[in-house]
Amino acid sequence: MAAGHRTDELKATLKKYNNNAEKKDPEKQKAEEVEVFTKLYTEMRGPKENEDQSYDVIPKFYFKLPGEDEILLQKLREESRAVFLQRRSRELLDNEELQNLWFLLDKHHTPPMVGEDQMINYEDFLKVAGASGPKCKPFFSATVFSKLLQNDPYGRISIMHFFNYVMRKVWLHQTRIGLSLYDVDGKGYLKESDLENYILELIPTLPQLDGLEKSFYSFYVCTAVRKFFFFLDPMRTGKIKIQDILACSFLDDLLELRDEELPKDAQESNWFSAPSALRVYGQYLNLDKDHNGMLSKEELSKYGTNTLTDVFLDRVFQECLTYDGEMDYKTYLDFVLAMENRKEPQSLQYFFRLLDVQKRGYLNVFALNFFFRAIQVQMQQHGQEPVSFADVKDEIFDMVRPADPLHITLQDLILSNHGETVVSILIDLNGFWTYENREVFMAENNNSEVAHEDHGEF
Q1: Residue 457: predicted pLDDT
Q2: Contact in structure between 122 and 147 (CB atoms under 8 Å)
Q3: Positions of the region Disordered (predicted)?
């Protein structure tokens, strides 16, 4: 009866508004109708079954990002993020607080020492926790202590290991906050332009880069950024998670340049060092014979030992980004990173895309033969007896041992740990020649080691 009465009341109310419709503005009339209908329908329906009352008090947790035309909202969001990051930065330990922490650890260490290493047990660990202040509290947990616990017979941990752990954590948080300042969208990743700005503003803080001319800064930034994107964005999405940047070792290599006394060999092996960047850019300029700032296929063919096959170079220019058939410096950097890091999965992915000439997602006998014929042609040009493709094909499949005996996938190449060798055999005469004469090289290395040992005895 109650439900029927409510229905009649709803009908009567709507009928009343309909009768007066001609006397009111249509838009206003429609709004009133919707309001009355919603109110009466809600009262009539009553609460839904299994509907929790907490639904009425759950706060809004999703906020749509402001659009490009909402300038004021964008500025407000940027300012609020900056304030938030500044607050998080103030929560970190500063140098004075770190020094105080070291003093407390030294004061409460637990004898005896292990060599020159001071140790601390859990009881003294908690004493330091109580005296070190609220900022240090997250580091003094049982979980952290157990992680650093090794084989000490007294159940202690190394003070130096613990302090290094704290330093590393503080550095990671500082770096994350620093990177987040360049995250324009605030989504936890950096676009290429964001990372370029970060590295450009980082250059003056790195003493090892003091000798770089400002005119070279743009080329240096491009060289540095390409390594991050080549290895951390293999799917070419144009963005990298800040979390991935922190997890890899590249940022450590870059910030290593703060060391004013960095050894020469360490600089040469560091992609981000001034000598390394100048080496790569110098090679690019040397290859650019017509000095137009771009590389043609003919110019790129002189890369390295000048033994890359024409078929492979054709595929590079077909698949990689070029401008009027020529390669710019950024595309060249991807090429160099792939060539110099052939063992890495990202490099194998780069080469696999070039080798998969039929775009089937795997390499078959046709694809292998397509590239190896160019190696055979080069061997004839150098007066060498061509090697049978059938033999090479069998050796490649024996090395890789693919899941499908007729098809080699990218995953097969990576899991085999022979991807570098397979790539070298198919694209580079020098790489193939090195593989064919591997036993000779091994014998020569063994002989030289024996000779060195014999010489050392005298």
Answers
A1: 47
A2: no
A3: 1-29
Q: Return the structure tokens found at 412.
A: 């097969």
What pLDDT, in 10s, does the model give residues 178-189?
999 999 888 899
Looking at the DSSP assignment, which residues form a beta bridge with residue 428? 308
Q: How far apart, in whole angstroms, are the C-alpha atoms of residue 65 and residue 83? A: 18
Distances from the Cα of 129 to the Cαs of 122, 220, 283, 382, in angstroms? 10, 45, 55, 72
Q: What is the pLDDT of residue 448?
A: 55
Question: Is residue 280 predicted with pLDDT exceeding 50?
Answer: yes
End-to-end CA distance of the chain: 114
Supply the pTM of this predicted model.
Answer: 0.78
Provide the pLDDT for residue 20: 61
Secondary structure letter of residue 354 according to DSSP: H
Strand partners, 157: 120
**406 and 364 Cβ atoms separated by less than 8 Å:** yes
| Nearest one of 185, 169, 175, 181 to 245, comparing CA atoms | 175
Instruction: Report the alpha-carbon distance of residue 333 to residue 267 in Å, rounded.
Output: 19
For the chain, give the number of residues.
458
Backbone angles phi, psi at 158, to 5 degrees: -75, 130
CA 185 – CA 167 distance, rounded (Å) = 29
Centroid of chain to Cα 11: 63
Q: Write out the two tokens for 242.
A: 């800040």
Q: Does the pLDDT of residue 458 top 50, yes or no? A: no
CA angle 174, 176, 180 (to 5 degrees): 120
Neighbouring-strand partners of residue 408: 363
Tokens of 419: 């991807």
Q: Do strands 239-241 and 157-158 pair parallel, antiparallel, or not at all (unpaired)?
A: unpaired
Tokens of 385: 């007896």
